[in-house]
Amino acid sequence: MFKKILIANRGEIACRVIKSAKKMGIATVAVYSDADRDAEHVKMADEAVHIGPPPAAQSYLLADRIIAACKQTGAEAVHPGYGFLSERASFCEALEREGIVFIGPKVKAIEAMGDKITSKKIAAEAGVSTVPGYMGLIDDADHAVKIASEIGYPVMIKASAGGGGKGMRIAWNDAEAREGFDRSKSEAASSFGDDRIFIEKFVVEPRHIEIQVLADAHGNCIYLNERECSVQRRNQKVVEEAPSPFLDETTRKAMGEQSVALAEAVDYQSAGTVEFIVDKDRNFYFLEMNTRLQVEHPVTELITGVDLVEQMIRIAAGEKLDLKQADISINGWAIESRLYAEDPYRNFLPSIGRLTRYRPPEEGRHGDHIVRNDTGVTEGSEISMFYDPMIAKLCTWAPTREKAVDAMADALDRFEVEGIGHNLPFCAALMQHPRWREARLSTAFIAEEYPDGFENAAPDPATAERFAVVAAVLQRIADERRAGISGARFNQSNEDARTRRVAVVARTDYPLSITQDGDVFTVTVEGSKAVTVSTRWRPGDRLADLAIAGQRHAVKVERTPGGFRLRQRGLDARVLVLNPRAAELNRLMPEKAAPDTSNLLLCPMPGLIVSIAVEEGQEVQEGQTLAIVEAMKMENVLRAEKKAVVKTIPVKPGDSLAVDEIIMEFEK
């Protein structure tokens, strides 16, 4: 077994690999850029080596820097994590030349499966079901349109060397095929240094289901069941689960056996994932094979009990796989929510900044469920524009899917993140969505259910009343605290003032009365029966753990003038707690109108202007491309929302803009 390994990665996956290595008694070496000097993976490792400036192309993507770090520290092997150099055959070859072990598959498998065109040919030869498409190289946009027309729309335009949703577009007509080819080619060139593109049939109402495989150098290969990854945004996975609620045992077995056949066809040795598109009739088609550890590997670990990182290390060290196919079963249900630095209220656009508050829920077993949080940040960490926006992977396990979903909903409610925009409210709301709970999913789920992004919906009557009760209890506790301050002018001696309140939720009044007996409160909302509430919340706490009518609730709390901001299950409400007279006057207060920005194109995220497609004085049509902004390694096309004339363009290509900075102004 190795005595020391280097992790050629950063963030949560570097921390994850370090945990397994430490458990195995293996010393670890971290590498870091200037941006990651104080990162968590640097602190966790036994040693750390600086490898360059923040841009990945000048640090984490430089194989020679990684090899030099291995020589400097005496690391015998390198675990690449995912992304960066994890699927680059040239890196694997360079390590071999230096006598350093690559903790992953051999060059042959990486090369064969890393090229999507080659991989589909090999898959077909191995008897794996594949999607109809054009596997040759595509010359230009006109050629792409011709091929797409022959295959039949809709089609998927994809980068041959792509991954993570980059260099990928869906086209429904010739115009979209032409633009999709140009954008995919550009993204592929900038992200992978390889602008080759291929086209295949797009399966309508598809599910994205993948099979985890493990293979050693002694001819043993098994599959560890499947993961459902259909909840995606722009082809980037957001929520995953294992097993899939859609597969039956027959389909699972067929997919697993075909995945093993593909792995054996390329002499695969390590952990790998074979991804499939599955249609509504459970027909499945090979999508690609990822020759690395997947982001969503924890859900497989939770239902099988197999540490995939440990297995990768043991296989790389030459050990024989000690697991047989008969040893792999499905124990319970696991769900993973990816916490991204993306603002759902701005159509999931990237957000950067410092985590002023980062308090994940407590990990471990909680009754009949387990909570796990894989992360690479702590409170005070900075989310940089240079790397992937994922902050953490929150996982829950329970005996059934329903219980795992409920456990995830509660864990998300207890996850406190402040300082940046993030998708935690969306994930929390998703856990309540009927389609999600009923497992009626496809890869178009988010696009169909949230076409304009995620909006803060008004709470339903039952939730609004619960928020009113919670706010009243919190206000009562705050009032008691202030009343007990020595010498304070504030006085709560009037019993009527202490018991009568009006909670205002979404401009609706909830008259109520409240009494207290220690930590237990009795609240009666006008027209409803009394409910008991118990809590140990104290002013200043940002999370309130309450038992309301015997049911536990976790509610995020923020003090605001006259009341509280309460957040739960993806809902965000400001609740006023007033005396009856103040509530009467509050109803007369006008609502402040939002500023009119309809004549402005604002930068929706911090990013770089790649190109400006129009000129000052030009008339633009609805849907016309105005500009392209690059952020978090993705190109975002900004289009005209209506017909207009461009008045001014105060920016130029190459400019770095902050969120809401003006890109162009239109004539009114």
Describe this structure in words.
The chain is 28% helix and 32% strand. It contains 18 helices and 40 strands. With 668 residues, it is of the alpha+beta class. Helix 2 links the parallel strand 2 and strand 3. The strands form nine sheets. It has a nine-stranded antiparallel sheet, sandwiched between helices. The chain has an eight-stranded antiparallel barrel with strand order 25-26-27-28-29-30-31-32. It has a five-stranded parallel sheet with strand order 3-2-1-4-5. Helix 7 (141-151) crosses helix 8. It is globular, with a radius of gyration of 27 Å. It starts with a strand and ends with a strand.
Annotation keywords:
668 residues, alpha+beta, nine-stranded antiparallel sheet, eight-stranded antiparallel barrel, 18 helices, 40 strands, 28% helix, globular
How many helical elements? 18
Low-confidence stretches: none
Strand order of the largest sheet: 14-13-10-11-12-15-23-21-20
Estimated helix fraction: 25-40%
Derived structural class? alpha+beta
Overall pLDDT level: 92
